[in-house]
């Protein structure tokens, strides 16, 4: 039987079902009808398809329960009566506090990020000059002295410390920075 | 005016589309009418897709709920039945997918479930169904038809049911399953060849 079926082209066989369903155009319908008239295999195949299709009539087609529509409408009404989540008071309160909390977290977050960014940025030339201002202020004097050893020795000299503390307006000036 | 509208949009000549447009305007009676028009058809299709009557009723109800929820944005672009069965098909596919993750659902399960057509004590001996020459009783035949339906993939089965139960044209099935009409033609052709091959083993044709 399989050998005989091979004689039919794939297109012809795919048109069989469409023929049974009345979905072919006039030309295709004529082609199938000519084939059926001349080919016993095609006729058998077509009959088998039609019989198989008729057997589906035995499939169960249960009806909905009598109160189906009533229950469906009742479910809809229940659904409509139930307020939407976003309209419920508790949800609005939670949303309000969540927004406040979110804002607070955002501010803190921005502060932390700003701090971290500021730490990672290298100091500018102006920052360095400001930081070393006490040194720069007396830079000419320090350069004139040439060595800090002399100043250290001077600071350790008791006579110098005594005299410098006695001089009005000079208190503490004997200290080496 | 209505005639002019029907000319511009052929879907408007569908009485169920008109009912749905009334639902959109807030007419509850129109919705009840739609439910009553389609409840048996949906339950019938779902029962044969899922093999479970109770689940079929739940899914039919969910389909109507979705239709109602979608009423405000409803714009008629197809026959009402096409739109309804598209929603139903999506629901059935999702349900089958989620069920498939748990276990395979087969038509055969209907034998002892709500689809059962005979008492369990009359279960068939397997061999009797394999005898082509033997006259099959109605229950045996139904079992074999179920098996033939089981041999189809999900899309083929839905297409067959829409074709058989709803007598939908290929164009309407195509619109429902979001396929081209030629794809539906080959889908149905393959499906019915499969069924024929399956049934041929048991039933003299």
Question: What's the arrangement of secondary structure elements?
Answer:
The complex is a heterodimer of chains A (177) and B (205).
Chain A: H1 2-6, H2 10-20, H3 26-38, H4 40-55, H5 68-81, H6 89-120, H7 125-131, H8 133-137, H9 139-145, H10 148-156, H11 158-166
Helix pairs in contact in A: 2-4, 3-4
Chain B: H1 2-8, H2 15-24, H3 28-50, H4 53-69, H5 80-102, H6 138-150, H7 154-164, H8 170-177, H9 181-200
Helix pairs in contact in B: 2-3, 3-4, 3-5, 4-5, 5-8, 6-9, 7-9, 8-9
Return the average pLDDT of chain B rounded to an integer. 82
Elements of chain B, N to C (H/E): HHHHHHHHH
Assign the CATH class of the largest domain in chain B.
Answer: Mainly Alpha
| Overall number of structural domains of chain A | 3
| Contiguous runs where pLDDT drops below 50 for at least 5 residues of chain B | 104-133
Weakly predicted, low-confidence segments of chain A: 1-6
Number of DSSP E strands of chain A: 0
Mean pLDDT of chain A: 83
Could you state the oligomeric state of the chains shown? heterodimer
Largest interface: A-B, 33 and 49 residues
């Amino acid at each position: 039987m399989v050998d005989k079926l091979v004689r039919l082209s794939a297109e012809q066989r795919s048109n069989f079902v469409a023929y049974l369903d009345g979905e072919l155009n006039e030309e295709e319908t004529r082609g199938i009808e000519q084939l059926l008239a001349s080919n016993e295999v095609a006729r058998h195949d077509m009959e088998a398809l039609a019989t198989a299709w008729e057997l589906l009539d035995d499939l169960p087609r249960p009806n909905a329960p009598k109160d189906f529509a009533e229950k469906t409408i009742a479910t809809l009404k229940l659904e409509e009566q139930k307020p939407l989540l976003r309209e419920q008071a508790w949800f609005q309160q939670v949303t309000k506090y969540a927004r406040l909390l979110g804002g607070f977290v955002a501010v803190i977050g921005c502060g932390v990020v700003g701090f971290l960014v500021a730490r990672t940025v290298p100091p500018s030339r102006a920052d360095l000059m400001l930081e070393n201002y006490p040194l720069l202020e007396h830079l000419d004097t320090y350069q004139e002295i040439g060595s800090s050893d002399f100043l250290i020795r001077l600071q350790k000299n008791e006579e110098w410390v005594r005299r410098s503390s006695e001089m009005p307006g000079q208190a503490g000036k004997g200290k080496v920075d | 005016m209505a005639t002019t509208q029907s000319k511009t949009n052929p879907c408007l000549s569908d009485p169920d589309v008109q009912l749905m447009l009334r639902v959109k305007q807030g007419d509850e009676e129109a919705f009840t009418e739609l439910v009553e028009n389609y409840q048996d058809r949906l339950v019938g299709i779902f029962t044969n897709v899922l093999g479970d009557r109770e689940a079929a009723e739940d899914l039919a109800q969910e389909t109507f709920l979705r239709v109602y929820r979608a009423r405000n944005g409803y714009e008629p672009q197809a026959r009402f039945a096409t739109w309804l069965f598209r929603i139903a098909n999506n629901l059935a596919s999702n349900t089958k997918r989620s069920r498939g993750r748990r276990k395979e659902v087969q038509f055969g399960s209907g034998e002892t479930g709500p689809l059962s057509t005979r008492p369990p004590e009359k279960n068939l001996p397997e061999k009797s169904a394999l005898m082509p020459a033997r006259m099959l009783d109605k229950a045996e035949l139904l079992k074999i038809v179920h098996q033939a339906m089981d041999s189809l993939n999900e899309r083929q089965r839905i297409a067959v049911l829409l074709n058989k139960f709803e007598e939908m044209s290929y164009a309407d099935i195509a619109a429902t399953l979001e396929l081209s009409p030629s794809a539906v033609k080959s889908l149905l052709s393959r499906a019915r060849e499969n069924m024929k091959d399956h049934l041929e083993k048991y039933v003299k044709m």
